[in-house]
Amino acid sequence: MTSDVKFRTPNILVVDDSALNRRLLSVLLKNAGYQILEAEDGRVARKLAAEEKPDLILLDVMMPVEDGFDTCKALKHDPRTKDIPVIFISALNDTESIVKGLELGGVDYVGKPFARTEVLARIRVHLELKFAKERLIESQIRNFEDIREAQESFLVVPDDYPDARFSYIFKPILEAGGDFLDVVRTGKNTYVYIVADISGHNLGTAYMTSALKVLFDQNINPYTPINEGLRMTNAVLNRILKPTQHLTATFLILDRLQNKAVLYNAGHLPVVHVKKNNEAGIIKSEGDILGPFEQVEFFPVETEVEPGDRFFLFTDGLVELFGDAYRTRTQGIDLIVESALKSSELPLDKSLKYILEHLCPEKDALQDDVIVLGTEL
Predict the structure, then answer these.
(1) Structural domain for 132, as ranges
(2) From CA 375, how far away is CA 312, in angstroms rounded?
(3) Buried b (16+ CB within 10 A) or exposed e, 17-44
(4) How would residue 202 be classed by pLDDT, with cut points 50, 70 and 90?
(5) How far is CA 117 from CA 93, 107, 113, in A?
(6) CA 168 to each of CA 139, 190, 232: distance values in angstroms, whole numbers, following the listed order
(7) Which residues have C-beta within 8 Å of that of residue 287, sequence separation ≥ 6?
(8) Count of domains in the chain?
(9) Which helix (H) or strand (E) holds 51?
(10) Do 344 and 370 reside in the same domain of the chain?
(11) pLDDT-derived band of residue 34, with 50, 70 and 90 as boundaries?
(12) Are 130 and 184 contained in the same domain?
């Protein structure tokens, strides 16, 4: 929470159709150091609450135009005001009224006539609870931002490997996502392009993406055959992943000297290949997911390529949709092939943006982390 928020004077909205009651409460609260807003009925109160965002609302029940119960119900259904605590102050002191007020979202209920010390004590308690919740939320936001920044610091930077000729888009649905990408140089003209997806989306998953960077750097290198490096990676993941977790990944090896591409796939999606002659399709290979099994097998596929060819690696958040906008994996892959071909004349980074916009026109509606990485010979 910023210092301005932490030390600001709380603002309280007093809602009562009686001008005398509003005056009594306003004087009491001002003398206690609070800022005051006043409303003579529920509709005015709701409008004022949405505009001014008071820290707390003192709400009478028996009012013309709209009673306090209906006002509270409407406040709690409005996203702009639903988190503002409401304390009922009413002459209706029967149990039924008190229970109804609390069930509608009120945090407390004070009967009239009220004791000044009691009202101030209840207000102080609920303001402390509200501000404590705000501080907790701010703290969690800062923690997630720290994690996100740490995760992004592990992401490979295209400018660091100009010969690798790649670009990517990374869109986590949480502050820190479970998808991962990397580019590893294994020879003078050879790079391995990696896109992976850890099952699950939580804080532990986000930490795992940072660990993957170290793990791949250790096992995918110029001195270790890729097959052996993947088995070593699996042996580690088999011991550190939770029983409910696993890793899918695709590893595309591009040898620009020999114009050769080799694809290793660990239960992941295929790679889209756009040829310079304006043909496009997919490259598929088979292999086990990483983590659950002590032993894994991979069946790589080798493809001849030419300068000007492009390749696109991606995670399932780009292709699959559920609910009203349901889209199958196959349909999504077909759309990537189509959009990659249509944007083949664009620079690589702009082609990636075109693909993302074509498959995910509503960015706020993403249902899963999204990575799309493109490279060209």
Answers:
(1) 3-145
(2) 7
(3) beeebbeebbebbeeeebebbbbbbbee
(4) low
(5) 18, 18, 12
(6) 31, 19, 27
(7) 230, 264, 265, 266, 267, 296, 297, 298, 299
(8) 2
(9) helix 42-52
(10) yes
(11) very high
(12) no
